[in-house]
Fold each of these.
Amino acid sequence: MKYIRKTNEPEVLANFKAQANEDWQPSYELLRGKDKQQFHHHLISEQGHICCYCGERIVSSDSHIEHFQPQTDYPHLELDYFNLLASCQQKIQPKEPRHCGMGKGDWFHSELLVSPLIADCEDFFEYAADGQILPSRELEKVAVATETIERLSLNINKLKALRTGLIDSIYNDSELELPLSADEIDKLIHYYSRTDEDGKYQPYCQVFLYLLEQERVDRKYV
Ligand SMILES: [Zn+2]
């Protein structure tokens, strides 16, 4: 999970809501066509083109607008910009496992779900070299992180395999000389902490950042 810094409500959503009058009330269901596409794209861009929960690369056609607090129980938040995120998965293929927003469904718990909008959300999770995501070992974070991983299905084989594949591509298949030097680790941390010239984070950047920080500590580079 990567922290998402929300700014101001984008015009497209503000304008849509501003059309409200005595005879017409805006609702999420009525947000359609170009307005919806534009807003969806805005969410993807502000997240650096990665899923709000797992960090997978997303585009409009393979992601959906996610209600962090579900519409079923929180209808007053259905068009609240700060409740709307972009999550991976749109049309689920037969036998494709659900995860992230599609896995969570209508579930929500204010104390047991880590929000990507809180500044320290990244500290709730740890990552293992075998692709697993684990709850932080900090006592006050264990319960909420464990429940979040479970509800979002972040440890299913599909996501573990994707993370392992990317970890391997860096540590085993790349030109990097191992073990990594302190300079190389700093360079990689710099690279994965930022968006590229197109405003995109690298997929699963948080996993690498965690592993690189661990390596820096293990090798006593700090
Ligand atoms: Zn995801």
Note: The two ends are 25 Å apart (CA to CA).
Amino acid sequence: MTGYDIIGDVHGCASLLTRLMGRLGYRVGESGAYEQPGRQVVFVGDLVDRGGEQLQVLETVKRMVDSGSAQIVMGNHEFNAVAYDTEHPDRPGEHLRPRSEKNTNQHRAFLDQVDGEARAGYLKWFAAMPLWLDLGDIRVVHACWHEPSMRVVEEALGSNRFSAREQFVRASDTEDPLYEAIEVLLKGPEIDLAKHRLEPYYDKDGHPRSRARVAWWRENATTLRQLAVLDGNFRTASGEAYPELPDVTVDPAESSYTYRGDVPVFYGHYWRSGSPEAGSDYTRRSACVDFSAVKTGNLVAYRWDGEDEIRPGHYVLSA
Ligand SMILES: [Mn+2]
């Protein structure tokens, strides 16, 4: 393989995917799948959720993976779909992801659009997706490349993918170390602000939050201000702008997430907006490819041609 095209979270946007495949130079081959000699697509997961063309996205992508013109890693929405579908072996009627009104509503678009036998087939496919891919010259994961979490997964699963229902049961048990490892890889690590004696912040819906995302992609980040990202339009309880986080050094466990590899890592998940920006969307060795396709109408890929440092000119936008 001479090159990889890493494609961000598709979230059921089949038309954008078609347009992006064209821009990247893929054509439908005899097998019925998009292909391009010498190149392979790598999807970062989250094919489903939200968008209106989920079945079409699944058909297109699975055909590519089956024919060998693409690879894929699992996103948190594929994991959630499997957990929502899987009954707890010891608690009949209960599912690994509880079928609460909130979870069901979040999942509605997938349940409505992907039905019956097709759903069963795709869930089986989701369940077996690798949680990360180390392709030698590049690495791909849905949310965070974190080797200690990968070691926990390998210990529990025997590899980088699930192979038994029992493993999903463990991954859904908040007391099990596998739960946290999967959270880190598929949803990204978080810092507890209360541990730093900081007040919760309030998101745009007025919900208090005490956890901040870790900007694991920021090179050389060591202080709380450098490492933590608050979500959305954050305010204090009294409605004022939340103060800048203190520039204090965090403990080694919290800064262990910082990516220090020499190999470029590609990830999605973070709902970035606008066009790729140095420092927040890409660094020398990392590039986010999720630019909120379902919200912004812009599905994004990174066209990798062998470089060991990210080149912003290699981003390709569907829009
Ligand atoms: Mn995601």
Note: The domain at 3-147+261-317 is CATH 3.60.21.10 (Purple Acid Phosphatase; chain A, domain 2).
Amino acid sequence: MLKNLDPASSKVTDTTSTHDITGIVSARATLEDGSVLAYVQSPGEAAIPIHVAKTDAAKVVVRNELTLSGKLGEGPLGFGVLKAREGSVSLNATNRAFGASEPRGASFFKDALPLANRYVQLTNVAFTAPRFDGSGKAVVRGDSGEVTLFLPRTLKDREVPSGSVNVFGIPIKVNGEWQLMASRFLSASNKVSIALASKHTCMTCHNPDMKAVGPAFRDVAARYKDASDARAILMVQVMNGGAGKWGTVPMPALGSKIPATDRDLLIDWVFSYRWDAILSE
Ligand code: HEC
């Protein structure tokens, strides 16, 4: 599909045909003018770059499945994109899965063309500044070099994730430099946290990305992303359980069965999924 959007040449040949596409948003960034540059894909396939006007921007959230219509043309960064006709973007579903990421180190980004338009995971990097500055960029450093992240302009003054981080997103070429359009930040120890959550039975009712018996952790974290007492709220739930915030099914009280250090680690881990929502602002 859309073979005339070749990431190697980035030139668009056909600008007159109308294309209708359905896909899941795997990365997105709000630009200076409020419009959104994003990638949509079907599970496991290469993603298609789209450019969406400000009026439709709110629907373009990572893991939303969209249907939209538009023509190919030169996008805001110079490479070819599908320009969504205003009003043509419709939301089919939220929290959809779009396939696994390809793990790569920082040196890969010297020339990321082999994975252009693919969902990748930049592993084991650390941020080089303490806060985001609203420039739409941030630099991360790994063992094998530095990578510039392409970020929403709305990301400003927030503290960066601490420690060793894996950054998920789509490689894009900006002014001749390969950058990573980031759609998720997770601690490099995320697998350890999942194992801990399994040990303490959280995973029998929860999934980070999908609603199960309990809510998806990315939805929980999104709800409290700006709350100064978010960790305390989540801790009360783990200690005492409860019902009524996400539905009628109750969560049992688990606090007394879990050591305090593990509870803190679990809360930090659940709350780390807030970056999904922050990067979709
Ligand atoms: C038996 C099923 C079950 C287990 C086990 C379980 N949960 Fe839950 N959890 C739920 C349900 C159901 C809800 C939604 C409750 C509601 O609507 O208020 C929930 C809600 C939550 C919330 C949202 C709280 C809020 O304020 O919005 C958090 C955080 C959470 N669970 C964390 C955990 C953690 C961490 C564990 C493991 C220690 C765990 N859960 C184990 C079923 C479960």
Note: Helices lie at 190-199, 217-223, 230-240, 260-272, 274-278.
Amino acid sequence: MEIEVIKKQFKKDLEKAESKKDLENLRVGYLGRKGKLTDVLKNISKLPVEKRKATGQSANALKLEIEKVLNQEINELASKSRKKPIDISEPGVKYPDGHMHPLTQFIRKSIDIFQSVGFQVAEAPEVDIAYYNFDSLNVPKDHPARDSFDTFYIEDGRDISDDKKLLLRTHTTNADVRFMEKRKPPVRIIIPGKCYRHDTIDASHEATFYQMDGLCIGEGIRVTDLLGTLRYFAKSIFGSDVDTRARPHFYPFTEPSIDLDISCVLCKGKGCPVCKHSGWLEVMPCGMIHPKVLKNMGVDPTKYSGYAFGFGIERLMMLYYGINDIRLGYTSDLRFLEQFS
Ligand SMILES: [Zn+2]
């Protein structure tokens, strides 16, 4: 068969080929052991001498061309079959929804309750000077909380007075005087935020923790306003059957100072290991703002009075969710976190 005839025939056959199998059959039909082109090459020796060279050359060239074309077609077919057509009716891929960390959820819940009775959220720096963290709040120079065993001080090499020393705030109360330097009474603020203390970490202590402080200043603010507000908060969080009680205490920035307890939410006041069998849980230090602190705020203590309170957010959150280890909140363990979606 003439080389040109074989070439034309191959082109026709190629147009009809649709699948990989068809293309493989073409390869066998033209280049296989008994293929059309193989046949020509085998019989070259039988041709007249003058024709052998030219026929050999063109047969070999066609062989290379057929191989190349078939390989190209097979590759093209393979890449087409990899591209799946888009089916717009197929259900989409569902990505897992994230959710707020239980601590954030609890902070927001607490903020909502205080906002419902007129408090606004205030902030203060986590790195502050000792004046706002201690001095302005009437915390004496020899108070144990100032000790470097409890407070993280930041040494910057400057020779400065104690009240200007930088530290990581030990409570969010550092916002109180800062805020009042810019505002006039009446004010009602809550300050949620991170605090730092040099505590040994165990099931109920972390070196970094959250606190929520509150401050209310106005004319004629009394202890009963304080107790009523905190009672409202406790009942809003833990349910209306929770009781509160006030015990006298001492804090340098309040006078009188109070420890507010709530009835144990775990044993309902009957007594259990968590409440040390007393039926009560100590949750909120509070009191009426000391006149010296009011003066530091630029507020006239003969005209205005006010109260302040603060609580550890983790402690209340643990009671709220029934969590027994504060460290769970900081381990990023999904087995724990996914229970709060
Ligand atoms: Zn109890």
Note: The chain has a mean pLDDT of 89.
